[in-house]
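Title: Comparing notes on inverse folding

I've been comparing how different people in this forum approach sequence design from structure. To keep things fair, I'm posting one structure and asking everyone to reply with a full sequence. Here's the target:
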């Protein structure tokens, strides 16, 4: 009896392996994982380690979903807007789809003109992650995904083990921890979460009437292909100044070239403190506030400028500015700018990116 059981287990084990690109790899199923704690609930999928929904109360205690997305995982596999996704190996743009590291020249897959965007044409947002841990309820509901990126994937050097954990904690708080370990070669790493937030509810229209405060007094100036020139500029006197709370839509028309905000802020932080408040969003109608704390040096603020006729949850169609992205991360194209904080991860120096999203709601 025991022998038959072991044999059965072996067969089941074999069945979960398959051939991809000629090599034997473990085939992981795509699934949906839900975390619940008090009033807050989060749905994620291991396709792209993506957030599918986050439901939280408004000022009247009414629950609503504040993340743009789709109803089914199948739709995520055909997404081109990076809804909710974990982007990598290197989020944001790498100019000319190339870099030199330790005298080796690396040519990457270009997927936005001549540049690489969000890790190439099949970045971390377009792969199946393994489920390492799943605890649905309790004091700290958690789901942890891992992805083993191979040497040469999209042109990047070395094997890399990436981990993303979603944790519900405290009262209406979401923690995301992204880690990466280079297994054999140094490589640039920049992982970011690409959720489109609309704290007024995902189907409430656009975010132009929401108020934002961004704790960055400088931005990285970019060329007309959105690649940093290497210089920084003060936000003073520009539409990028959100040091004091401002309505998002007030000055957005001054940014005709990018059709809205799509820029990296240098986060100010406090001297000697690793974790800083990066941004605060407030929506008057729902009374909801979102605060993002992070250890990342930068924050890409993107107002969903290129969303057009995207058929989302429950048939709702998203248009430009339907949501906003708060992508805490390293500065874009850091690997080609020695003056920027380094994104190089080595076997001795692992990567860790911490994000805390604090939600609250009250009548003002
Ligand atoms: C896949 O996405 C494209 C837009 O990017 C859309 O036109 C098409 O209908 C989608 N296909 C499916 C099966 O959802
Ligand atoms: C890519 O680079 C080549 C050579 O510099 C240039 O001719 C071409 O216009 C560029 N393409 C885009 C889409 O920027």
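Reply #1:
Here's my take.
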């Amino acid at each position: 009896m025991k022998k038959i059981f072991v044999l059965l287990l072996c067969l089941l084990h074999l069945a979960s392996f398959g051939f991809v690109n000629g090599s034997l790899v473990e085939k992981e199923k795509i699934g949906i994982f839900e975390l619940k704690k008090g009033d807050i609930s989060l749905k994620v999928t291991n396709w792209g380690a993506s957030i599918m929904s986050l439901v939280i109360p408004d000022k009247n205690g009414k629950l609503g979903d504040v993340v743009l997305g789709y109803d089914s995982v199948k739709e995520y596999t055909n997404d081109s807007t990076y809804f909710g996704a974990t982007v990598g190996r290197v989020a944001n743009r790498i100019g000319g789809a190339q870099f030199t590291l330790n005298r080796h020249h690396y040519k990457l897959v270009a997927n936005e003109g001549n540049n690489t965007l969000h890790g190439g044409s099949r970045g971390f947002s377009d792969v199946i992650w393994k489920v390492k841990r799943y605890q649905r309820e309790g004091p700290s509901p958690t789901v942890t995904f891992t992805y083993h990126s191979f040497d040469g994937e999209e042109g990047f050097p070395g094997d890399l083990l990436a981990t993303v954990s979603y944790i519900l904690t405290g009262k209406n708080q979401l923690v995301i921890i992204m880690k990466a370990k280079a297994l054999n070669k140094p490589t640039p790493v920049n992982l970011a979460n690409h959720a489109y937030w609309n704290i007024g509810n995902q189907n409430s229209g656009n975010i132009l009437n929401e108020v934002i405060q961004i704790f960055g007094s400088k931005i990285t100036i970019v060329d007309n292909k959105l690649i940093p020139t290497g210089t920084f500029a003060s936000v003073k006197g520009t539409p990028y100044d959100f040091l004091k709370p401002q309505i998002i839509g007030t000055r957005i028309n001054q940014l005709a070239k990018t059709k809205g905000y799509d820029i990296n802020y240098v986060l100010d932080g406090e001297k000697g403190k690793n974790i800083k408040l990066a941004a605060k969003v407030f929506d008057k109608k729902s009374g909801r506030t979102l605060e993002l704390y992070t250890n990342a040096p930068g924050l890409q603020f993107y107002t969903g400028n290129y969303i057009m006729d995207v058929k989302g949850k429950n048939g709702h169609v998203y248009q430009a500015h339907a949501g906003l992205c708060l992508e805490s991360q390293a500065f874009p194209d850091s690997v080609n700018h020695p003056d920027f904080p380094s994104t190089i991860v080595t076997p001795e120096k692992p990567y860790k990116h911490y994000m805390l999203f604090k939600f609250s709601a009250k009548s003002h």
